[in-house]
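Here is one chain, start to finish.
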Amino acid sequence: MIEGFLLGLIVASTLAAGAFFLKFWRQTGDGLFLAFGIAFLIEAVNRCFVLFTDRPDEGSPWIYAIRLASYLVILGGIIHKNRRRPRA
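Its structure:
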């Protein structure tokens, strides 16, 4: 029972973090904020999926594949930000 509560807390926290990053992205237009916002929202959906499965298995390859996708979104945002040419 406590595991469900803690997973729910993690889902709410990652949703809040994603919302904050998307808010900052709308204010600044920085793509790195967008990448972090999307990654946190993907993580929230992933944790919510684990929360509502009958037998949650954190060692499932699908869980790690979704987490890998969210980390790749962050990596893509970092690479995109660093590859931009400086304005003269």
